[in-house]
Each structure stands twice: as structure tokens, then as C-alpha cells.
Amino acid sequence: MPFSIIQYYGKSDKGRCGYCRSTSSAITHSFHSFTLIPQDYQELLDRGWRRSGHYIYKPKNITTCCPCYTIKCNSQEFKLSKSHKKILKRMNKFLRDGVRPNIEQEKEKDESFQEIVDIPQIKKAEININEIKGDKQLENPINTLMIKENQIQNTPQKASTSFQQQPNCNETNPRRKKAKQLRLERKKAKYEAKGQSYEPVGLNLAQQKTSSEKTIREFIGEVEESNCHKLKVILVPSVNSRNQDVFELYKKYQIVVHRDPPEKPTFKQFERFLVKSPLKKTANQSSPPDGFGSFHQQYWLDEKLIAVGVLDILPFCVSSVYFFYDPDYSFLSLGTYSSLRELEFTQRLSEIIPSLKYYYMGFYIHNCPKMKYKGNLSSSYLLCPETFTWVNLNDDVRNLLDIAKYQRLNRNPEVVDANEFKESNDLDGVLVLSENRYCTYKTYIQVNYSFRE
Asked: What is the DSSP string of 311-346?
């Protein structure tokens, strides 16, 4: 029967934080994993643990400098945002035309449009409550708030003045509507002129919009033989990536993007960090075609390796371990693009194994700018560090984390940790590895601690 073998290190105080760069404020629990069965590691992920090579660690969120919340996305509920579609289209256009996109030009276009459509809203603080006269409800602070909100709703907004103040605004040439929308409006006007109501056949407008939304797979499938470039994404076991090409890409990424000194990224460090894995490769009837275990998802542009995603495929999820890419292709937003490809990969696996539908993105740190992109994926959930239940990452949760770095995300006081350790007797039969020898936990305690009593 397969089993996991680990060596527990305990709690580490005053370690170096890789996020805020503090040299003595990171507090973690950790252990070395000699071997892990996929199911055990899945359960560890759902308790807030994470691996780096064979090193498994869990931040002590309540006291550490940067609380880390495990984040996952439900691939079956995921919806593409406007920015995601733009990145997918940018990649497709580059593959088709071979022309490097002008990112700055795209930003200027977006900012120009934002200046036109972003009409400033009247803030509650701008309303002078003394201007509301003759209303006895002012004596009640709750009614006062209601009056403020009503005045906001009934106060006309000077949209035309706001537009005149915008230097890039052209009142005579407003943003053009899409042809499909114009056709629907003309047809609706004809029906209304006849005194009839108009409803599109089969679907209403909201349903039409939903049904017409393209999926990641449909964007990826827009590949033509006449394309200037060919992008190939392949999955290989991590042990098969132990070669110089992958290492050179990793080294270039670390030096340029993370500004590591050239001597720091060594082949041994790369191998220990991203190639070696404690996960036992498992293939059976309940596993995906490639089995459970650790893999590298390689991105080949024509004959050149431009990116690698390190993934763990587990019983209920695809877990992203690390991602590195060629900085020369940063104009393609490969970090976000790869997360969309990994989401689509998870969607394909869920078609084979319905329970394998989650995409784990590692840790989410709310006050870390580099982590913001993780929270931009729809249908994302954070792991509550006290109840170990999943909480939807919505505006309420973001507001909580704005107030304080550490929060009990599940606000229901009646919810508790269903797997909380209660009885010490439960550990008696657990095997303990100590000084390269193993014994039961009960024996370990008797031998090592009985003399202290």
C-alpha cells in the first residue's frame, strides 16, 4: 500500500520573506517530504500547505508579516473578462501576422476611452445635509442616511459639463455601437411603431450575450495554417525537463525579471526547486491519461522554448507551482496567458474526471501588487485560515483584507474546523521518522520525552 514519508522541521521564526523582502518577519511551519502520494498532498493544499521542490511549508498567518491565503478557481464556472480576451486576441494576432503588438498604444486607447465614459459620481460627503429643510426625519441618523441617498439619486449629474472638460472628448462623434445592437434597435423601433412589443426569437438579450461569449478553447482554436508563427504547448513529466535548454530559460528569467545575480541561478538549484518532486506518479482508472504527479507544460514558439509552467496534477485540482518565461516575449503577457491556458487544461481534465475541476494558483497576498492578477479570475475562492472552508473572493472579502492583513474569512461564528485535532490518542499509531529511523508516535514520545516528567 502506498504511503507518504515526511520529516517535520517544526516552526521557523524570523525567516526571510520572499514577498515584502523583510529579513526577519516570516513565520512558517515546514517539513521535508521524501515521498507523497497525490491524495495526501491534495489534503495538505486544502489545509494551507504548499511545496517548493521537496520542501513543504505553511505560513503561520496570524503572526507572519505577509498572511498567505490559498486561492483556487472553479474552472467550470470561470468567465473570461475583457482584459483576458484582449490578451488571447493579442497572442492570436501575433501568431497570425508575426507583428509585435504596441502595448503602449493599446493603453493610450483604453485610457482615452476611459476619459470619455467615466463620469464622476457625486459623493455622499459632498451633500450638505443642512440644505434639506423642513424634514423632521433629520433627527434620526438612519433616516438622515436615507435622505442623503435619495438626494443623490434625484440630483441631476452634469454629464455634458463633465464631457466638455475632457480634452480628448468629441461630442459630435460618440462611441459607435456594434452593428448587431443597431439592427436589434431598428427592429425594436419598427415593432413599437406598430404598437407591438418586440422580443428576439428564442433568446432574450441577456441570454444571447451569454451564449455568444467565446471560451478560452475557442480563442485557442483560432489557428490557421497560414499563420506566421506556430505555438505548441506540450505536457511532459518534470523529470524529463532536466536539460540545459529549460535551465537556460529559467536562468534568464530569474536574472532579468527577478534581478537575481548571474551566479545565483545554478543548475542544482533549478533541479531542486522545479524538477525534483516528492509526488509519486500515479496512473490508474481514476486518474487522467497522463496520471497524477508533477509535470512541466512547455510553450514552444516555432522551434524555440519561450515559457514553462510547473504543474501538479492531483485528484481534485491542477496546482500551479511556478511559471517562468523568456523576457523577450513579455509583450505577450505570458504570465496571464499561461494561467488561462492552465485553466483551459483543467477544464479538459474535468471532462474526463468531473471532480478534477479546480485550478489552484498557490497563495494570494492581498497587499502584494504582484498577486493582484490572481484575484482577477472570476469564480475564485480563498481558504479561511481558521475554519479551512472556501470563501468566495468578492468585494466583501477584499474590504476585510483592506482593514487588516489577517482575517478569519468565514464570518459565520458557528462554523468550525471539521478536521480539528482534538485527541492526542489519535496520533499513537502514526509512524514517525526520527534520525533516519521510524517508530509509532506513542513510542517516540515515550523514548524521547518520558525522562522529562
From this structure: EEE-SSEEEEEEEEE-GGGGGG-HHHHHHHHHHHHH
CA–CA dist 67, 69 (Å, integer):
7
Select, from the ranges 168-177, 324-333, 442-451, the one with the highest average predicted confidence (pLDDT): 324-333
Distance of CA 116 to the CA centre of its chain: 31
Identify whether the C-beta of residue 197 lies closer than 8 Å to the C-beta of residue 191.
yes
C-beta of residue 29 within 8 angstroms of C-beta of residue 68: no
Can you tell me the distance from the alpha carbon of 356 to that of 390, in angstroms, rounded to the nearest whole number?
A: 16
- What was the pLDDT predicted at 380? 96
Name 59's bridge partners. Answer: 28
What does DSSP say about strands 431-434 and 50-52: parallel, antiparallel, or unpaired? Answer: unpaired
Apex 134 CA angle, 128 and 140, nearest 5? 70
Residue recorded with cell 476619459: 115
Who's near 331: CB < 8 A, 6+ residues apart? 100, 101, 103
Tell me how far apart the terminal alpha carbons of the chain are, to the nearest angstrom.
Answer: 37
Name the residue among 238, 260, 401 with its Cα closest to residue 308: 238
Q: Is the pLDDT of residue 373 over 80?
A: yes
Q: Count of CB atoms within 10 A of residue 361's CB? A: 21
Taking the model in full, what pTM does it have? 0.75
Buried residues in 158-179 as b, exposed as e (16+ CB within 10 A): eeeeebeeeeeeeeeeeeeeee
- Residue 180, Cβ density class (10 Å: 0-12 exposed, 13-18 middle, ≥19 buried): exposed
Residue 441 identity: Y
Assess contact for 319 and 46: CB atoms under 8 A: no
Say if residues 231 and 91 touch (Cβ distance below 8 Å). yes
